[in-house]
Amino acid sequence: MMKRIFIELQERSYFVYIAHGILKDTKFRWKLKKGDVAVLITDIQVAPLYLKRICNTLNSFGVITDRLVLPVGEQSKSLSVLDQIFTKLLNKNYDRNIVLIALGGGVIGDLTGFAAATYHRGIRLIQVPTTLLAQVDASVGGKTGINHVLGKNMIGAFYQPVEVIIDLDCLFTLSMKEFSAGLAEVIKYAVAFDASFFNWLENNLDDLLKFHPQSLMYCVYRCCKLKASIVSLDEREIQIGKRSLLNLGHTYGHAIESYFSYTGWSHGEAISVGIVMAVNAALHLQKFLSTRDAMRIKLLLERAHLPVHGPQEMQSKDYLRYMARDKKSRLGKINLVLPVSIGRARVFLNIDQNVILNSIEYNLIK
Amino acid sequence: MMKRIFIELQERSYFVYIAHGILKDTKFRWKLKKGDVAVLITDIQVAPLYLKRICNTLNSFGVITDRLVLPVGEQSKSLSVLDQIFTKLLNKNYDRNIVLIALGGGVIGDLTGFAAATYHRGIRLIQVPTTLLAQVDASVGGKTGINHVLGKNMIGAFYQPVEVIIDLDCLFTLSMKEFSAGLAEVIKYAVAFDASFFNWLENNLDDLLKFHPQSLMYCVYRCCKLKASIVSLDEREIQIGKRSLLNLGHTYGHAIESYFSYTGWSHGEAISVGIVMAVNAALHLQKFLSTRDAMRIKLLLERAHLPVHGPQEMQSKDYLRYMARDKKSRLGKINLVLPVSIGRARVFLNIDQNVILNSIEYNLIK
Ligand SMILES: NC(=O)c1ccc[n+]([C@@H]2O[C@H](COP(=O)([O-])OP(=O)(O)OC[C@H]3O[C@@H](n4cnc5c(N)ncnc54)[C@H](O)[C@@H]3O)[C@@H](O)[C@H]2O)c1
Ligand SMILES: NC(=O)c1ccc[n+]([C@@H]2O[C@H](COP(=O)([O-])OP(=O)(O)OC[C@H]3O[C@@H](n4cnc5c(N)ncnc54)[C@H](O)[C@@H]3O)[C@@H](O)[C@H]2O)c1
Ligand SMILES: [Zn+2]
Ligand SMILES: [Zn+2]
């Protein structure tokens, strides 16, 4: 069974295809034609698992494939690795008619997406996300970019792929830790936008953790569907509106990631703690989130094997330092996305520093 | 007197304003409001001439200004200088609400434009071109980018400014050599698109070379108007169509620039030789350009103090090596824009290598 989601963005519209085994399906029609040159960009962990499979399939309908295998990890989202990609492409004399295929997690997706956005001022891009996080979030919506020593995702572009191919079979080789990291974003969607999906997660989390095929399909489909509707409303995140709500937990989370220079804590783990801190802030501000809903959120994260306490090394002031630098902040004032009930979130502007300190400190006590 | 041109690009539409003295005109309304933070990016040659003037004006209506002064020259269009800009902006904690102002020639315009396209995935950009070349060409149309060791303008983005402010007074401080370089692009427009403008140039070139104010206004206005209509038709240069015709002379020209690693020959000088070589190729292909028109083009370039012979160091095979790498080429086949009469040009696909060799060699004989 295959599912298809249309991302409506005028002349930049495209489809997301979701299926088990789609990468080895020689009957599935990619948006590529005979004679096209596709350069697969992936990392050393994903390459041995899926590179051959996808090349065989593409070659079987006459697509010429080339590849670039990069090191694993967030450090690859840098200007210097980006330059490596350009050097490879220019050495081969590739013109603007080639297609880049991002085969991997969010790191490969963001980096390859940005390379596609800027090589010859923009070439075609296909996202083939292989982590849960990338399947439900990073690969859809056109955010691409790299990090700077002074901040995460500070350099990038909004650049839409021509299609997104999601093979749910790829999830089977993920470590439990990586799978859980993806669940952090899944739970984020449910908390911010969709109460009935949150209920579904409460009832089906155990099946998901056992990689039950139908549950995986439903979960990934539902998240992509949510992302699709949000992205269509606000492609470039211009309004402080619905699209910003995707950042629930991220202002806190980025502080954790930055503190460890993106090496200690994974994005998903950091976001999980961030969601809990956002829940705390919502509780502190009162009149919004109920304690019961707060408990349900925290419990679901725990059941997904996600951390709900911040790293012991970090003090609340460490968070503040990084949070003031966040994209959603302005002139040192901190804005946050907070849940107001399960399935609903809002942007709160210029939040009192004490509320933020409390939301963090409350969480440091184990 | 001020002239205004509308660049029609749906939600990315903007105005180009052209006037003498517009940078010190405190009555002119910029697309900036009180409290906005504008970071001016310029080079060490332009800074002492115009930076104070423009800051005073902007400060007079409450805009907060900051500045970054970069080295002069094509070498600044690099990943490492781009990184310098990001570092400066991030060190100041600037968010996506700031505006970048590119104050300078095409180098500053292309580099600053690309920085604006990619900082926080895109911030506002105002182009303030100060060379003739940048006023008639580089600042309008949204092409931004940097060079790679392996090729010129290989990395970049299509990114439109929110406005372009052209102060014709800036041209008075240009060296004659730089002014002539701009005339190469002016003559390119006339040859490729506009026979009556070509006639006007034949009649008014001497006034232009004396910086006659009305002539400058007419010349810059006419070129921007031509560029505007072309850009509106094909924002991202997707078709091999009208917009590609802007590349008349550029495939040869880029070969010259690359050969000297962008340090020996200026863009305008290289393009001038490129136009003559394109004229030669058109003559060789026969049935198109008349010998008389060919002579008129060459003569006008010479009157503008532009070179019409290629550099002595370069042999025809040196050209070919770089030309095969050009954006308009595909799979080693060379495509060229050639004039078919004064005011009309066409793209010719997959040109015979001998025609190209002849068009170059014919030109090496002084
Ligand atoms: N663009 C967006 O909208 C967006 C959204 C969310 C996150 N992100 C970005 O995504 C990144 C995190 O992505 P991620 O969590 O996928 O990390 P990742 O890309 O680093 O992948 C995690 C690890 O899993 C490995 N891996 C990938 N697929 C595998 C598979 N099928 N089997 C076994 N191992 C596999 C990778 O090699 C890597 O070691 C961050 O940089 C974050 O900023 C982007
Ligand atoms: N984006 C586009 O569409 C486009 C089109 C054409 C050219 N370009 C690019 O433009 C660049 C060339 O631009 P350029 O010719 O303006 O070169 P440039 O920017 O290097 O400027 C030439 C010199 O003139 C100086 N200068 C600038 N304004 C001055 C003034 N008013 N008075 C005195 N000196 C002044 C500069 O400091 C520099 O030394 C190339 O990199 C080319 O690729 C881009
Ligand atoms: Zn995320
Ligand atoms: Zn040019």
From TrEMBL, chains A, B:
Q: What cofactor requirement does the entry state?
A: Co(2+); Zn(2+); NAD(+)
Q: What are the 3-dehydroquinate synthase C-terminal domain coordinates in residue numbering?
A: 182-329
- Catalytic reaction(s) noted: 7-phospho-2-dehydro-3-deoxy-D-arabino-heptonate = 3-dehydroquinate + phosphate
The chain positions of domain 3-dehydroquinate synthase N-terminal read 68-180
Which note does the record give on the cofactor? Binds 1 divalent metal cation per subunit. Can use either Co(2+) or Zn(2+).
- Family stated for the protein in its record: Belongs to the sugar phosphate cyclases superfamily. Dehydroquinate synthase family.
Protein name listed in UniProt: 3-dehydroquinate synthase
Q: Which organism is it from?
A: Blochmanniella vafra (strain BVAF)
The organism that produces this protein has a lineage beginning with: Bacteria, Pseudomonadati, Pseudomonadota, Gammaproteobacteria, Enterobacterales
